[in-house]
Amino acid sequence: MTATQDKPAGTATPDTRTINLIQGVTEALAEELERDSRVVVFGEDVGARGGVFMATAGLQERFGRGRVFDTPLSEASIVGAAVGMAARGMRPVAEIQFADYIGPGFDQLLSQAAKLRYRSGGQFSAPMVIRTPSGGGVKGGHHHSQSPESYYAHMAGIKVVMPSTPYDAKGLLKAAIRGEDPVMFFEPKRLYRASKGEVPNHDFTVKIGEAALRRTGNDLSLIGYGGVMPDLLKAADALEAEGISVEVIDLRSLVPWDRPRVLESVEKTGRAVLVSEAPRTANFMGEVAYVIQEQAFDYLSAPVQQVAGFDIPYPYVQDKIYLPGANRIVAACVKALNY
């Protein structure tokens, strides 16, 4: 069954239960390991320890060392092994301990995973998932807090996903594992236990490439993904208190991204504010802004606004200033409204 969820989950019903985002990840991995013998899970400390954030806790004990196992501290080897396994018919799910660490495996992704289907004329493919905690907000410092998703959005041939709710984390991860393409699956670490919501008791997936409408409105479109989504909703609440109707869209997927839903919203409201915590220059949201001005220019009542991180390494001490909090988002919305 494929399902979508437009609004954050509320109170659990007899057909659902409430979990947090990291539990959604763990459940997705467990269910796919159970469902498909081709699925394997591996990475640094993912076995007996269960990963640095415990996302794989209990999986090795349940499925054995042949299905869930530790690797050396070598991201190039982790990604390279995933490519080889995928090419030979397996369904590897590799964890990179922090998104900041993917660099050594970058060439394997760019030159091998992204190209395999095309360079082989369709004889081989790379149905693999690279899971990795991403983003700031947990006092991780310069090398544990970056948001590098834009690099991978530029790699033609790789899908890029970042959920913000337990429902999406579980449903999107299951869809990624079952798909036929390599997927970069970024998990906003500050939401691992902060984001709670209901998920169905039955098997489900969330289609990659469909955004979620978190809130309807008529005056302005507020668009984001990942760790910033709670701040978007706080900003929308603050503006609603002043009589401003804000529509909130969670992209959930960057490649592919939901152009029709974004354009439909902007054509209705005439104003768009785009939010992410990655550095501003070459930010993926610049692509969204371009498509809006290219295809919805005649509907715009104000220039598209963007709220992002700054063009500096992630600042450990001043992370609250760096991250696009509700105050910065509201200020951008007011600028658009007053144009």
TrEMBL record:
Residues 19-194 form the Transketolase-like pyrimidine-binding domain. InterPro entries: THDP-binding, Transketo_C/PFOR_II, Transketolase-like_Pyr-bd, Transketolase_C. The keyword Isomerase does not apply. Its cofactor is thiamine diphosphate. It comes from the Bacteria. Keywords: Oxidoreductase, Thiamine pyrophosphate. This is 2-oxoisovalerate dehydrogenase subunit beta. It comes from Deinococcus xinjiangensis.
